[in-house]
Amino acid sequence: GLCELADFLVISHCVHMRKPDREIWQLMLDLAQVKASESVYVDDRVPFVQVAADIGFAAFPHVSLDATREGFRTLGLAT
User: Fold this and answer.
1) Percent of the chain with pLDDT strictly greater than 90
2) Of 13, 19, 21, 26, which Cα lies nearest the Cα of 57?
């Protein structure tokens, strides 16, 4: 169901890059042709969330389904 929630996904093991290297986020931005400020990053690993936030993404950690839904609601992306 994740693909139904996003316009674009980059999965690290599929592109042979590893987080927290910033190159994986830049690849996603380049492929999607968007700015970091137009993007959302969610991960269960807080250090990765911090790197994405430092780059300019709206970023928050996934700690539970309810919390992630609330994060999207806070961004105005869900009701």
Assistant:
1) 59
2) 26
